[in-house]
Amino acid sequence: MENHSLSLDNWVALSATLEALHLHKASSGEGDENGNRGSSDPPAHGAKVEAKLAYAERACKVALLLLRRLTTGNDRDRTEENGHHENNLNGHHENHLNGVARRRSLQVDDISIGKFSVSFSPSNQGEDNMVDTQDTIERVLGYLNTVRSNGDLNDSSNFSTVGEADIKCALDSVIDVAITADDLAAFCTAGNHSDDMFHKLGILFYQLFARGESPELHRREVGPEEKDTRSVSTTEVMGDPACSGSQEEENEGQSPRKQIRHLRGVRESLSGKGVPVSLCRLVSDLIDPKEEDGSPFDSLDEVVEEVKQILDRPDIFFHDVNWLDFSSGLIGRSEEMQRLHEEAASVQMGAGEFENRLVLLKGSPGAGKSYLASNIQGELSESGWFYVHTKFDRFVRNPLLTIASSFDELLASLGEGGDEENLDILENLEAVMSTSAIATLSEWLPSLRDLFPHLLRRVISDEDLVSLADDSQRRRRNNDMTSSSESAQSRLHYIFRKLVSALSSPERPLLIFLDDLQWADNSCLDLISSLLMDFNHINQFGLADDTPQCFLVMGSYRDNEVDSTHRLSSYLETFERSNTLQVTNIQLDGIAKSDANLMLSEMLGLPLRLTKSLTDAVQARTLGNPLYIHAFMQSLVKEKFLINSVVKKRWIWDIEAIQSISIQGSIAEVLTRKISYIPHDTQEALKVMSTFGSQMSEEYVSHLYPLQEKRQEFCDRLNSAVEESVIEKIGSKYKFVHDMVQQAVYELMSPKERAECHFQNGVKMITALSCCADSHSDLGLITFVAIDQINIAKSFGVTDSSMCTQFAKLNLKAGESSMEKFNFMSGFSYIEHGISFLPKESKWNSSSYDLCRSLHEAACLACYVNALPTKANEYISELLENAQCLEHKLKAYYVMVKNLTSSGDFKQALKKTFDVLIELGETFPTEITPEIIQEELSNTKSLLNNFTKESILSSPKLMDEKKLWAIKFMNNLSGPLSITNYQMGPLIACRMVQLSSQYGYCSESAFGFLGYGQAQISVFEDVDEGYRWGKIALSLLESLGGKGYLPKMRCLFNSYVSLWKEPFHASSNVLLHTHSEAMLVGDVEYASVSAFFYCRQALVCGQNLLLAEKECKAVASKMVQLKQIQMCYGQVNTYIFILKMNGNYGKVNPFPEIFDGKIANEEELLNLALSSGKRINAKGILSNRFQVAFWLGQFEEAAELAEKAKSPPKMSFMEVYHVFCEGLTAFQLARRSSSSSASKLMTIGEEAVTRFRLYEKCSTWNWENNLFLLEAEYHQCKQEEDKAAAKYRASIKSAQEHRFVHEEALALEFYGDFLRTIRRVDESKEKYANARLCYEKWGAHAIIPRLEEKIGRIQGTE
User: Coiled-coil ranges per the record (predicted)?
Assistant: First the structure.
């Protein structure tokens, strides 16, 4: 499309016309084209100011185009004059200008905007509007020509038929400014850095900003003292048109003073026309930098830079700045912002599907870490991101609540306004989280109570979640807490991960900013680690579902405070090593001097050239630290080294005084200087506020000062500090503008003063709360704050001995409340403080015995959950030494046993458990025989004949505490016994059933019934009886409300019982779901057990081995992370089997990662299992070797290993597949052995057939194809060819129908072997080919070469 041009003076007239239209409407109160009225909103005066500023901004844009033309020249004219390519800019352009200058002298008209023209183009308006814009430009310019010939261009009435929007559209379409080559050369003849050049440019800019008017010109007197202020013409100033070059040369040797020609009152003149001060200064300094406090330009580029700065920040430079303006955006961090945007983009594009991302912002205090995060948050929020900001504080003793509070704010915002998208998110949250999980979270996130009232009403009606009032019921709740606390933290982590996953999506990603990580405690860092390195959206073991999580975590910390001994350091190292976490480190140091200059320039509203000297002084004293710079500048104002001059309408400073200030590089000194100018009473209020950390809510104030008069006085002082920019008021909270300000205020007090202040705060708040230690009400946040104040004072050595017992009780209550919410780290801190308030010499006296015992019981529990075994043993020893009776020792014993079990010391764990059971009146035989087991099972069966399922489910609950503890201890034996002495298992189960039947039922009773049912199957091979009692156990647990135990129950039922009646594929899916359920209730042990059995059963279902490898690796990593090392022994066996089958063994070594380098290979694992008495582990390794040898066709080796791995016959998962592979191995070897050996082998094979006939009756789906294959091999050995062929085909068909692809492959291969022996070669070749396809589908690449060899032999024979 065609571009149009217009002389610059006409552009000025057109732009002034638009301004006049706006001013007219503002004065008359008319509305604009959209119906907005100028006189009401905004007021008329404001509208007039805006009209003038709009003109200034348009003129600035044209000025910038004009400057670019002067610095680059007119490309078209230069090319025509020199005949060179337009890129030859430097030498050719200069020669051209000098040549033209020699041909003509400078004329008066050369200093006129009329010599320039502007170009219009519709492309400047966007492709969609180009045609309309082209028409508008042509209409405005056409009408302009008419008006120019008929009337006054500045008369707005002449534009009555051209709309305001039309004019604005045309003005916004300016794309360039041009001047002829001759005029350009004449203008630039003195060069781009001469005073004459700047002088001419100043006159042009004056005309541009003054709506076409020229300045009033003056000349200085020749005499050294005299001044002549008479007006002269432009001709007199610039030289007569007839003047020759020689006349100008004659003046070159004269005094510079005699040559100075200047314009007086430029600033005042332009200011009177509504031109912003920054532009007045610009023009004045161009025309005569020596006027008033002018400052010369060094180059034309500097002029360009200044105009660009004014245009970039009109909010600053179009207004008078008479205060330090700290509103400038992020300065000096563009590269860091770019990296953050790249990380966010990676997350949103799906990079976090199998890998989370963490960005760590590190630097010294005041480097701008939080401000950088705030800026990226603002930009990402505009594109749909959610934002959670957690700020840790060194004075907050319960930082996990800080994390919860930040998430609660986000959830509360989702419930506001009824936004459809937010409602969808809440629906998803309800769908992916269980009711009990939401109930648990509601303790941390109160907003959930408002968002899901229907769920919480239902939960509260459940008997297991009702708050029980009487003492005995409360004691039972505490006992349950003892048994489940070890998994509570994992449950909390899992629930938070589910929350994050539900809240985040590619459409609405989530940004989590964790500020000041150096003050986060271990409980917070553990939660953060879990959020970062665990994946809920992956279907437990490596496969992403349809809704992957989509979140980015940013953390900031002071790297000058985090050394190798700091608790954060080990977490940072773990993050760096993690395979599921991408860490990006961003170091924030001081900003560059050029950025500091920009900061000061915008802060003072002055151009960059004027602030350079000040920047040099400030940078040297602050090292470019943004916070230091702000604080230092404020101190300069307070000390009057930096003042805002009313006369000069700008900030001025005493540079020598500033340079004389000596600062030893400490921000504290800078901030202390700033605070010292604040009134004393305000400082005192700030000191009180500083003892609460970085912020203080009005609720704190109301509890500190219950009397309205005192409260108002304190708030007035804080409001005074707000005015001093020391703190800020956000909602109902007062916040220090930076942590370093809070630290500086806090350190104004001596250690003794701080302690006294903390103590008085705590006492006042506790008094106001009327919080007594005997109250059973839940503690609110304000109570924790009060207790924290007391505890901090205690750490300084300040307390009141008369109140120590009360303080100990309050800490006990705070600790128990924290642990009930699974915050065991904070809970332990409160418990330790509580113990510290008791007198060491007399704390076990009768008066404080119960309190001391409760504190030590809670300490044992907290230490165990926080993985502090040494500390736990100290508290256990002291408790056992001072406890007055067995009942008072039971919790300590229980924690002791759990400690021993967790450490792998099963022998000592079992010994201590049986010792406690003896004290509780429960004894067991030391030698276990099959007869004893059978007798106990028979007796229990006779007892249960008196009960129906209905009578059991309706029986009373167990109330005898000794028997309750006995059953708890027995239930805790299942893990160690399965590893070291599985024969004891049936006796323990029978005793649990007997005690429950006699005294009543508890949740643990259900596991007794399950163990009894399992024993019926394994000992008596009574599958129906065992399956029935397993179902009753599930029902009993559900009726007792033991939801926390349900995942464990489902895991055991589907791993040991249901497999005898239900298809493997079904129980495999249940185990997959059970893993999630177990994590949701925090049962990490049985989450790991479920994962292990899922992997094992998925494998026997014929799962693809490459997928199985991926899942196995993920499960093993999860077990290591959850410290479930015992389960790793079994998992590594499955992993090795898979690797050996798919051909990756040797390429992948799972041992170093799983066992942290302590075990290097399978042989070392076997030796460890044998030496430590872990027979089940040793048997698992040998059995795994046997299975591998069998599937690889190494039958001689398989037979030897089968003998080593053999155990007494019983119905178990391991026995089933041992019998199957051993039977097939025996038949394979029998056909190639001597008669004596063959007979023995046939016996083994026949026994396998007999066993599988029993198994097949239990589950046709699971074992029919195995039975048919064993029978086929048997008939082949007996040379019963027809029967053998029929059984082979039946086995293949059954495996196909029941989806056991690996066993279908095995049956096809064995059938092919059979067909080859009876000379049916073509059929044999076909079966081999089909077997090969099935093995490929299974992923057994290690077996395929064997099939290819067999096919090759047939082809060779052919």
Answer: none
Contact yes or no for 144/150 (Cβ under 8 A): no
Residue 1004: pLDDT band with limits 50, 70, 90:
very high
Separation of alpha carbons 528 and 403, rounded Å: 10
Angle between helices 1125-1142 and 1105-1121 (to 10 degrees): 160
Quote the longest CA-to-CA distance of the chain.
Answer: 138
| CA distances from residue 112 to 108, 202, 213, 251 in whole angstroms, order as listed | 8, 11, 10, 25
Instruction: State how far the alpha carbon of 1345 is from the alpha carbons of 172, 1313, 1323, 1350, in Å.
Output: 76, 15, 20, 9
Q: Which amino acid is at 236?
A: E
Q: What is the DSSP string of 1220-1235?
A: HHHHHHHHHHHTTS-H
Segment 1033-1064, tens digit of pLDDT: 999 999 988 777 889 999 999 999 998 999 99
| Cβ neighbours of residue 280 closer than 8 Å, sequence gap 6 or more | 266, 267, 270, 271
CA neighbor of 582 nearest in space, from 361, 350, 334, 354 = 354
CA distance 1143 to 1343: 8
3-state secondary structure (DSSP) of residue 957: strand
> 402 to each of 395, 407, 411, 743, 787, how far by Cα in Å?
12, 9, 15, 20, 16
Q: What torsion do the CA atoms of 515, 518, 524, 525 make, to the nearest 10 degrees?
A: 110
Spatial separation of the C-alpha atoms in residues 587 and 530, rounded to whole Å = 25
**pTM of the predicted model as reported, rounded to 2 decimal places:** 0.70
- Inter-helix orientation angle 608-622/626-638, to 10°: 100
pLDDT at 456 over 70: no
- Please name the residue that has the structure tokens 């840790």: 392
Residues 6+ apart with CB under 8 A from 1349: none
Q: What is the DSSP string of 274-299?
A: T--HHHHHHHHHHH-TTSTT----S-
Instruction: Give the pLDDT score at 449.
Output: 83
Query: Are 352 and 550 contacting, i.e. CB atoms less than 8 angstroms apart?
Result: yes
Higher-scoring residue by pLDDT: 160, 386:
386
- Distance between CA atoms of 1096 and 60, rounded to whole angstroms? 75
CA 357 to CA 334: how far, in whole Å?
A: 21
Pick the closest to residue 1000 from 1078, 1051, 1063, 947 (CA basis).
Answer: 947
Q: pLDDT tens digit string along 629-655?
A: 888 888 888 889 999 988 888 899 999
Residue 798 and residue 473: Cα distance in Å, rounded?
39
- Cα–Cα distance between 634 and 1307 in angstroms, integer? 86
Q: Other CB atoms closer than 10 Å to residue 653's CB: what's the count?
A: 20
Check: CB of residue 557 under 8 Å from CB of residue 517.
Answer: yes
Average pLDDT over residues 678-700: 93
Radius of gyration from C-alpha coordinates of the chain: 43
Amino acid 77 reads D
Residue at token pair 């080859």: 1316
Tokens standing for residue 1084: 């990490």
1255-1278 residue pLDDT tens = 999 999 999 999 999 999 999 999
CA dist 895 and 322 (Å) reads: 68
Residue with tokens 């920019």: 725
Cα→Cα distances 982→898, 928, 1174, Å: 19, 10, 11
> Regarding beta strands 581-588 and 510-515, do their DSSP bridges make them parallel or antiparallel, or are they unpaired?
unpaired
Q: What's the CA gap between 1192 and 1335, in Å, rounded?
A: 12
Distance CA(1270)–CA(1245), nearest Å, equals 8
Closest to 1044 (Cα-Cα) out of 488, 479, 452, 457: 488
Beta bridge partners of 728: 735
For residue 464, the 8-state DSSP code is G
